[in-house]
């Protein structure tokens, strides 16, 4: 399973709880889309996840920016993800970012608003924030490989309730 989180905004640890903590511990790969706030928070995630990849966000200082990139590509289950915290220009800029990086899907954060938008040229996935939802529900994303190819995804609250499902099938 691939687990996607973002926007922790913590000064005192990863702030993972309940289903989100369990999912991070169970995952084959955890991706964080930025805004840890403190280097110790980044380290706390690294300690919890078997395999952890991240990008930095606009609230991450030089100690974090020296350790992780502003953008990266990640492959899981045959799907190529382009990961960033945000791009000025909204969904159009995010789609262009994904195209430039040869991605099937763009993972991003920043807004704290969980959602999957598959209507554009490149699907966009925002896991929301598991720790500081800013008026949205606390959430993360879970994606699992499908036997016939592609991924089945869901947005999940920290209490384990699925509130949105989606499927990703890369272009062949």
From TrEMBL:
Q: Which UniProt keywords apply?
A: Hydrolase, Metal-binding
Entry cofactors: a divalent metal cation
Tell me the protein family, please: Belongs to the metallophosphoesterase superfamily. YfcE family.
Extract the GO molecular function terms from the UniProt entry: hydrolase activity; metal ion binding
For the Calcineurin-like phosphoesterase domain, which residue ranges apply?
2-139
Q: What is its EC number?
A: 3.1.4.-
Signal peptide span per the entry? none
- Note the CDD domains from the entry: MPP_YfcE
Q: Cite the residue spans of the region called Disordered.
A: 118-138
InterPro entries assigned to the protein according to its UniProt record, in alphabetical order: Calcineurin-like_PHP_lpxH, Metallo-depent_PP-like, MPP_YfcE, PdiEstase_YfcE_CS, Phosphodiesterase_MJ0936/Vps29
Instruction: Look up and give the organism this protein is from.
Output: Haloferax gibbonsii (strain ATCC 33959 / DSM 4427 / JCM 8863 / NBRC 102184 / NCIMB 2188 / Ma 2.38)
Q: What is this protein called?
A: Phosphoesterase
UniProt key word Hydrolase? yes
Note the Pfam families from the entry.
Metallophos_2 (PF12850)
């Amino acid at each position: 399973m691939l687990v996607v989180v973002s926007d922790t905004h913590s000064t005192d640890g990863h702030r993972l709880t309940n289903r989100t903590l369990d999912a991070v511990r169970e995952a084959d790969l955890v991706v964080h889309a930025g805004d840890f706030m403190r280097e110790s928070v980044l380290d706390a995630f690294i300690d919890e996840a078997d395999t952890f990849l991240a990008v930095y966000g606009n609230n991450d200082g030089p100690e974090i920016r020296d350790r992780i990139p502003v953008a990266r590509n990640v492959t899981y289950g045959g799907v190529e993800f382009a990961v960033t915290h945000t791009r000025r220009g909204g969904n159009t800029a995010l789609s262009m970012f994904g195209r430039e990086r040869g991605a099937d899907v763009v993972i991003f954060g920043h807004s704290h608003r969980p959602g999957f938008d598959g209507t554009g040229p490149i699907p966009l996935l925002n896991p929301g924030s598991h720790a500081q939802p800013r008026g949205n529900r606390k959430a993360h994303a879970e994606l699992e490989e499908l036997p016939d190819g592609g991924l089945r995804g869901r947005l999940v609250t920290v209490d384990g309730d699925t509130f949105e499902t989606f499927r990703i099938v890369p272009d062949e």
